Amino acid sequence: MKNKIVLAFVILISNIASAQTKTDSIVSLSLDKIAQVNQGESYVTFPFDIGNLEPLLFEANVSPNFKIRERKDSRLMAVLTSQIIIRMFDEYSYPVKTPSYIPQIAFYFLTGHKDAANKLTLFGKIAHHSNGQDGNFYTDDGKVNLQSGNFATNYLELGFLQSSYSQNLKAFKFIKSSFEIHPKSWMLEELQGQYSGLRWHNTFLAYKLPMKTNTLPNEKQIANFSIKAETTIMLDNFNNWNYFDAKRLNASLIVYYHPKFLEDIGFFVQFYHGMDYYNIYFQHQISSIRFGIMTETLRF
Asked: What is the DSSP string of 18-37?
């Protein structure tokens, strides 16, 4: 009888330790995952968006990341990204006009205890944004040359990421705040005074893990839902806009769903309002609802 009690006690302790180890491994976010959250995902939109965008067959964001670090548990890491955004227009010959090329390098530093559930990560980014064109910025009638006009700017982004985990909801939460700075000497002369050079970004992200899972102890889980709400406020003096002009605000909401029958992609819907982010189209104001597929290789 005593042997049975001892055996039951050992099994109970083993189960508790195993569960604790699994919980700790989920709660403890690595710098690798935190950086992956901030770098964003690749996506392709469907051709039936709602709003005032030009008719498109699709918009695609290709954003591969290359990590530079000493070892997996390093506090400091760099990420090199060769981001490209392309739009195929629903016009004769289905042209891809002036893609956005945004090569960048980002640096991340993890503060505090590595195994803490709540983490504060500092980051900085140096990026270039251009459209690969060399034509005149303006057409002969004084309008912005959307077909072949040159667009180019370079910028810095400095900010932080606060991450946490809700045990009750089984969800990871991230709060990001950063400033994006385009020095005048770093941007095309024609952009100065009409393209915002100081932007304040604020983002909230949440990744909802399955409440019940059949995964093995060392197997990573993928979120079945995620939500990303983002605002950008343009703070500098440009276009002679009033400081309280509503056009200074860009807002985006993305809801992502990962069905069980798909491995690394899922479906998303995006609500966007604000300045067009597609290089030389920056003077356009967009209000749109879009649908598409998105990669989601992030696993917890």
From this structure: HHHHHHHHHHS--HHHHHHH
